[in-house]
Amino acid sequence: MTHRERMALTLNHKQPDRTALDLGATTQTGMNASTLYKLRAALGLEQHPIKIIEPYQMLGEIEPDLAELLEVDGSGIYNYYNMLGYANDDWKPWQMPDGTPVLMGGSFEYETEEGSGNILVFPGRDRHQQPSCVMPAGGSFFDNIERCKSYDEELLDGRKDFKDDFTVADDITAKRWEQDSRFLYENTEFSLVGILGGGSFGDVSIIPGPSVKDPKGVRTVEGWLMAHALYPDYIREIFSYQKEVMLKNLEIYKQAVGDRIQTIWVSGTDLGTQNGTFIAPSQFRELYKPFFKEVNDWIHHNTSWKIFYHTCGCITPLLDDLAEIGVDCLNPVQISAMENMGMTAKKLKAEYGDKFVFWGGGVDTQRVLPFGTPDEVREQTKERVEIFSKGGGFVFSTIHNVVSNVPVENVIAMYETVLGKSLR
């Protein structure tokens, strides 16, 4: 069975020959370059700088040799312009604070802050602007810097304030979508995931505007959450504009990639915290749900693509809503958070296994994978695969990306358990 055939069965809730496996097909199922470099060394693969395909989280490219060894089933169509606002091309060498050699896009520019050692990047590579993201000294990924200016709440205008955050794809981007999807479709057997972006309504990682030179309006996470109560019409204005751009980009995307992709990554909005939802479920239903549904309806009416949503945290109160708006694939399946409201892995599979493909949930990346023993990793991985894989509808992946400082022995133990074979 080919990767594409295996994923087709999985996405349609049918039992494949083995559990489908993803590493790196999306921006939430990848691996930090630091850990990836160590994993390649431990597995005896060629050592060379890791290409950074998503710099905000410093995610490394999963190359063919590793993908083959781990029997990875999917690959992502990444965007030409990344979250920091520069193009993924013309690669040049760089070194992470821990010494990991990497390749960054040629337009990557940074400044090391005197005294602190923090690494700063600027929106649009414009050093005349305030820095928009920071990698703390000794860190391994970037955080947003909130650059919210004072504003007159009477003059808030969602369309004007966020006009630079959401834009219609240019010809260069569309051409890259077409070229990359065609190359992977014709030269590999991977199931392809289109990482379009732009449909993450209210995503707190994009509210600060990491790639926007002069962000206007409400731009702090605290201010954004308060705006749900204070300025609901402002949020609707932003979402209405964002939706219009998203629908235009979907038209362009469909023309570029056609049926070469099986799944489309639509949203990365985290709706949950460790113990509950970010906002009241009633606010989600009033402000978010109509916009998500309109985008999803377009996809289902005009394509054969399955819709992938990433949403961290305890989203138990919103599971029915997500099913109603047409979410097909749910990620990262953060059981450790959902358990705080009584939703165990077994209960989730029993009650929602016919509604969602669970893309994730394979092992806890907050405690077990980074701090457990290899045996503890094997035990949880085995348990999760047994629960979620019954009847299909499960793509094995960790709960969000594998970050830095995770013991490589634990990573290997995880994959050996899923694959049922030794990797060394």
UniProtKB/TrEMBL annotation:
Any Gene Ontology biological process: porphyrin-containing compound biosynthetic process
Gene Ontology molecular function, alphabetical: methyltransferase activity; uroporphyrinogen decarboxylase activity
UniProt KW keywords: Methyltransferase, Transferase
Pfam family, any one: URO-D
Start and end residues of each Uroporphyrinogen decarboxylase (URO-D) domain: 270-418
Entries under InterPro entries matching the protein: Methanogen_methyltrans, UROD/MetE-like_sf, Uroporphyrinogen_deCOase
Record has Hydrolase as a keyword: no
Xref: PANTHER family: METHYLCOBAMIDE:COM METHYLTRANSFERASE MTBA (PTHR47099:SF1)
Protein name as it appears in the record: Methyltransferase CmuC
Natural source organism: Sediminispirochaeta smaragdinae (strain DSM 11293 / JCM 15392 / SEBR 4228)
